[in-house]
Write a structure and sequence with these properties.
Radius of gyration: 25 Å
Number of helices: 13
Largest sheet: none
Strand content: under 5%
Number of strands: 0
Structural class: mainly alpha
Distance between the termini: 100 Å
């Protein structure tokens, strides 16, 4: 007992130190390389997403953007065994943008099983379907899918969820409900800690939407309403960065002007 090295319990044999085998070293090296590749893809993917917000048409239509989206998905699954909701969502939106319901079903069938279990249960797939039906003009089905989701569980998409809900009520011409949701949206942005650039996107969306909803609720002459709408369109073009869903906002303002000319 006196010869026993300090720190080792009596009667317990000293463990032999294990050194990694050649196979183990190669496996560890491959994992490190894959993780480095994933980090590079992630950074480039991040840059492309940010560029797509600011200059959407050339970036979103480029082959590079589509290629890196596919690589990001496949590499993340290979490295981590799961697919993050952010990458899943981006791929789904790209599929929706091409107006292909069958492709969206196939995309969800292929990639949804790789979502972390708690994320899949938190409504990301339902939210993707809500976006699809909004784009199709089926606002009732869109609302059905949105009603299944607890927005706080959507993480990074909780603000887009609220913005989509506002747009659904607007399209259904339920302007009172849209106004209530806009007021809630304003308080929600104030209470959350977000990066400055992201906050500006949401605030600019709020500034345009609240004025547009107000125009529909006003009881003025058509001429006065059309004049206000033109000023609103000028104001939108002056904003930087451009609001969330800029193209949709421009379309709705132009429709209002045409309706009241």
């Amino acid at each position: 007992e006196l010869d026993r090295p300090p720190g080792r319990p009596p009667g317990r044999p000293q463990r032999r130190r294990r050194y990694p085998t050649e196979y183990g070293r190669k496996k560890q090296y491959r994992v490190c390389i894959l993780k480095e590749h994933w980090n590079c893809v992630g950074k480039l993917f991040e840059y492309l997403n940010f560029a797509a917000i600011n200059t959407p048409h050339p970036i979103l239509n480029s082959d590079d953007y589509l290629l890196w989206k596919q690589i990001a998905r496949e590499l993340e699954i290979r490295v981590n065994g799961v697919l993050s909701p952010a990458v899943f969502y981006n791929g789904a939106v790209e599929t929706i943008r091409r107006n292909q319901q069958i492709s969206l079903s196939e995309y969800i069938k292929q990639y949804a099983p790789y979502l972390p279990a708690e994320k899949a249960q938190n409504g990301i797939v339902d939210y993707v379907w809500a976006i699809f039906f909004f784009k199709e003009g089926d606002y009732d089905r869109c609302l059905d899918y949105l009603s299944k989701i607890a927005p706080k569980k959507l993480d990074f998409l909780r603000f887009e969820y609220r913005a989509l809900l506002i747009r659904v009520f607007f399209e259904k011409r339920e302007f009172e409900l849209a106004a209530i949701q806009l007021d809630s949206f304003r308080h929600y942005i104030k209470d959350e800690e977000l990066p400055h650039e992201v906050v500006k996107l949401y605030w600019n969306f709020y500034r345009i939407m609240v004025r547009l909803v107000k125009l529909y609720r006003e009881t003025q002459s058509n001429k006065a309403k059309a004049q206000k709408a033109r000023k609103l369109l000028q104001y939108l073009h002056s904003l930087s960065p451009k609001p969330l869903t800029t193209d949709w906002l421009i379309k709705k303002i132009n429709q209002f002007i045409a309706l009241h000319q």
